[in-house]
Write a structure and sequence with these properties.
The complex is a heterodimer of chains A (about 170) and B (about 170). Chain A has eight helices and no strands. By secondary structure, chain A is an all-alpha fold. In chain A, α4 runs antiparallel to α5, α4 runs antiparallel to α8 and α7 packs antiparallel against α8. With about 170 residues, chain B is mostly helical. Classes of the chains: A mainly alpha (about 170), B mainly alpha (about 170).
Chain lengths: ~170, ~170
């Protein structure tokens, strides 16, 4: 089942899209690649500031709510740019990337980071500690802040590793 | 090409550091992407601290945080990230100095980096006076240039590998 999806000719057909050929054959590829790196790093940096507060390590003079309001729009904005540029890079060699173990790890780790994020929101948003200064969330929710950083670091490492498996 | 650059490349290539860096990078499978990721995490800290602070000074981000307090809190992150970025990059530079020293994109990155470093430290000094002077126009202009210079440094970093594309005929 999974093997037939991964080997489906759909991935190859993406590479023959005029836009994919245009990106792959011009300076658009390095442009999108560098914008991908920039947006991923900016997202990670903003996420670091927020996740370390969630973990109760830094900026405890601010409420988690304040820092979420401050950083989430930038995190999501950077994420959207990263996905758009990442897709543009992906379609130039889709059939190879989809079989690349590092790319599969990357998607898997991003999925776990997404699940972690949804679980965090679901369990923590109504907690009074969310809106109080110098407050710490229960330890298992603070662990999810650290987990988020570990998962995203892993996704970044897997993304960088892709280029080393050709 | 400038004479000093050739001399530097020859000196580096004939020094034991080249051999050492080269065998270090090959010693553990996957070490190059691991070091590159550490370098990228340093970039993430830099963008999340200094660039985010600059956006705060410009009044577009992180409005619940005071610029003076934020600057005192995030600058140490920047200073800790610098040696991490330096040492995660150094083995690559020493293993193949000619790849970088004759590359015009590396030159752009080096100039942008030094400018970013100086301007960031100057911005840090200005931030210490916010309590007295408030966010001045000079500080705002510095913040805008700081963002530009660090973004340029990051983009140029990736473009080092693509220097040939700049003159791509398509």
């Amino acid at each position: 089942m999974i093997s037939s999806i991964l080997n489906h000719e759909f991935w190859l057909s993406l590479e023959y899209l005029p836009i994919a050929e245009q990106i792959g054959a011009t300076w658009l590829f390095p442009l999108f690649n560098s914008l991908h790196v920039l947006s991923v790093c900016f997202m990670l940096g903003a996420l670091l500031m927020l996740d370390l507060r969630i973990a109760g390590v830094v900026a405890r003079g601010y409420t988690i709510k304040q820092l979420s309001d401050d950083f989430l729009p930038w995190i999501w904005g950077a994420f959207v740019v990263a996905v758009a540029t990442g897709t543009a890079l992906f379609i130039t060699r889709a059939s190879a990337h989809i079989l690349n173990a590092a790319f599969q790890w990357k998607l898997g780790l991003m999925l776990l980071a997404g699940i972690n994020m949804v679980a965090f929101h679901f369990y923590s948003r109504n907690m009074p500690q969310f809106r109080a200064r110098l407050s710490d969330l229960p330890i298992w929710i603070r662990v999810s802040g650290v987990s988020s950083l570990i998962l995203w670091t892993g996704a970044t490492l897997a993304g960088r590793w892709m280029g080393h498996i050709v | 090409m400038a004479e000093w650059r050739m001399t530097l490349i020859q000196t580096l290539n004939s020094s034991p550091l080249r051999e050492l860096s080269d065998s270090f990078l090959r010693s553990i499978p996957g070490l190059p992407p691991i070091l590159q990721t550490i370098h990228l995490l340093g970039v993430a800290v830099l963008l999340g601290s200094i660039v985010m602070l600059s956006l705060r000074i410009l009044g577009v981000a992180a409005k619940s945080q005071s610029p003076a307090e934020m600057s005192a809190r995030v600058f140490p992150w920047f200073f800790y990230a610098l040696p991490v970025m330096l040492f995660s990059a150094l083995p690559f530079f020493l293993a193949r100095p000619q790849r970088y020293l004759v590359n015009p994109v590396f030159g752009i990155k080096a100039i942008a980096f030094v400018a970013g470093l100086c301007l960031s430290i100057w911005m840090w000094q200005q931030c210490r006076q916010i309590a007295d002077k408030g966010v001045t126009l000079t500080l705002k202009l510095t913040a805008a240039v700081v963002i530009f210079v660090w973004v340029l440094t990051t983009l140029a970093g990736r473009w080092i590998a693509y220097a040939d594309y700049i003159f791509w005929p398509g």
